Amino acid sequence: MKILTVVGARPNFMKAAPILAAINEHNEKLAADSADQPARRRETIRHMLVHTGQHYDEFMSGSFFSDLNLPKPDIHLGIGSGSHAVQTAEIMKKFEQVLLTEEPDVVVLVGDVNSTLACALVASKISFDSIGSRPAIVHVEAGLRSFDRSMPEEINRILTDHVSDALFVTEESGNRNLLNEGVSLDKIHFVGNTMIDSLIKFRERAERSDILEKLGLLRQEGKNGESNSIIRYALLTLHRPSNVDNCYIFQNILEGLKELATEYPVVFPAHPRTQQRIKEFGFEFGPGAAERKHEKNERGSRNGCNGIILTDPLGYLDFLCLMKHATIVVTDSGGIQEETTFLRIPCVTVRDNTERPATVESGTNIIAGTTKEKVEAAIRRQMASEGSNKMPKKWDGQAATRIIDVLVSAYCGRAASRQSAICSSSGEAVSPSSRGSSGCAPSVLRL
Ligand code: UD1
Questions:
Q1: 116 CA: nearest ligand 1 atom
Q2: 82: Cβ below 6 Å to ligand 1?
């Protein structure tokens, strides 16, 4: 079986890494004890990693490959930034060529970014041969719904799910949503969350990060300052266009954080889009920022906040370390809502909805909205909360293994059966792309 996995943007890497690891594990087990396995499970998985290049710089992509032990992509499409239409269309054009050349049996797509949808559309319409063979489309993190179609990710999620052949679901709401939309039960597999697989695998390594020291979040203790303790701090991320592209909304969220920032340092690793807006809107952070706020820039005086420490986007291990030790996390990210649930860190989500209700049901996450008053109130509630011990089902580090088990049962032997289907089809010539090892010679087909 040949599997091709696509990654493109930052939140894809930690979701795909465990799948690659589970494929390696499958192949290693086969090499060790192939005689004990039933015939179809004895098939080695050949794997290719395709990076669309939607995210392309060291901060947003490169560092994640080293942190997560991801191999260098076999194919890099080099797409880069662009409008939604341009990005999606460029990925589609290049990915079609990849599929026609590689003819995988299975295409694995993760998450809800533009790369996910673009590749799903291509795979759903491609034809490798005279009988219209195409790869099976597998969507990991299927079924999540915010019910807010103004989010590009919601459109990506719905469309990807509806052209997929196998849907791997992270939380129970995903099962319900897909069934309500008429997806047939036999396509849906509730396996857990591969992003949590990564978190479990890498949390020890993240402890060795020196990010706390770098950001001055360690306090020397003991008579001679011989031991360190971590000071209380908050962690903030904002990148959704609906939050950061609008100066008024962005400023409101920052106002809602001011009270927290007077008590604790708030570490703010900012996405490139957010950094751009901060510059445009003339926001100031760090020591003296509040005092400088009356100095007008060309757009008028803007928010200033002393307690916020602005940094570049961080790598996976540094960010995981920061999340693990934070007193509270304020975010508009989808994935961080889930990671804080697993780590049992109080999270305030500055959005009006979530596609991940399990994080709210588990008691760690509050959906606050984006007004100053609501953000402030949610932060106060979380700072006073007792915490929670509830964990969503199957968030146990085994999601990727479950996925590979399903794929092996469903799709191993697919290449051979495709070849025999072509052989038995009514005298059509085999296309060059459908050559394989099934033993059906083209001369037989020409009869
Ligand atoms: C994308 C995803 C979003 C995800 C987010 C995580 C879609 C629709 N959105 O949004 O779901 O939460 O990634 O980061 O796919 N940029 C860089 N360097 C990079 C990549 C981007 O500087 O490596 C800058 C560019 O100026 C670009 C902007 O960031 O215009 C936005 O990047 P883009 O991929 O269009 O979308 P994100 O906002 O990152």
A1: 15
A2: no
Q: Is the CB of 51 under 6 A from ligand 1?
A: no
The pLDDT tens digits for 69-92 are: 999 999 999 999 999 999 999 999
Of 124, 140, 123, 119, nearest in space to 189 by CA: 140
Q: Which atom of ligand 1 is nearest to the CA of 80?
A: 20
Of 60, 90, 151, 242, the one to substitute when testing ligand 1's pocket (max ligand atoms within 8 A of C-beta) is 60
Confirm if 120 and 136 have CB atoms less than 8 A apart.
no
**Per-residue exposure over 61-86, b if at least 16 CB sit within 10 Å of its own CB, e if not:** bebbbebbebeebebebebeeeeeee
Res 77: pLDDT: 98
Residue 239 known to be catalytic: yes
- pLDDT for 389 equals 85
Residue 240 CA: nearest ligand 1 atom is: 38
List of the chain residues with pLDDT < 70: 34-41, 225, 290-304, 415-416, 418-447
- Judge whether 332 and 313 are in contact, CB under 8 Å: no
Closest alpha carbon to 357 in 142, 173, 155: 173
Confirm if 15 and 141 have CB atoms less than 8 A apart.
yes
pTM, entire model: 0.91
Cα 60 to averaged position of ligand 1 atoms, centre (Å): 8
Q: What is the largest CA-CA distance in the chain?
A: 91
Task: Report pLDDT for 426.
Answer: 46
Residue reference for tokens 């999620």: 157
Instruction: Looking at 37-151, list the stretches that DSSP marks H as alpha helix, in order from N- to C-terminal side.
Output: 63-67, 84-102, 114-125
Task: Tell me the CA distances in angstroms from 95 to 87, 131, 155, 316, one per residue in order.
Answer: 12, 21, 20, 27
One-letter amino acid of 119: C
